[in-house]
Amino acid sequence: MKCKKIIAPVIITILLLIYLATYLWGWSHITAPSWLKAIGLIIPICLMGISIYVLLERIKEIRSGEEDDLGKY
Asked: How many Å apart are CA 58 and CA 11, to the nearest integer?
């Protein structure tokens, strides 16, 4: 039953990664100063990494049985 609870976060993360990858592709094809282009590429890459990290943390929470984050407080 835990697999069903993991599906939604995985799908949301995949959709977010597709969106950010599309943004990266579009941003890499525009004409802009190199410093602006670098910032426009670094930020989405960091967001992609953070999204994957959060997904892994959420999967750990689901597997450990702690599904309610409010239970910590």
From this structure: 13
Cβ atoms within 10 Å of 58's Cβ, excluding its own? 19
Cβ atoms within 10 Å, residue 50 = 10
Alpha carbon separation from 73 to 19, 55, 68, 69 (Å, rounded): 33, 21, 10, 8
Check: pTM over 0.70? Answer yes or no.
yes
For the chain, the three-class secondary structure string (H helix, E strand, C coil) is CHHHHHHHHHHHHHHHHHHHHHHHHHHHCCCCCHHHHHHHHHHHHHHHHHHHHHHHHHHHHHHHCCCCHHHHC
Q: Which residue is associated with the tokens 């999967």? A: 59
Query: 23 Cβ partners below 8 Å, 6+ apart?
Result: 44
Residues 26-39: tens digit of each pLDDT:
988 888 888 888 89
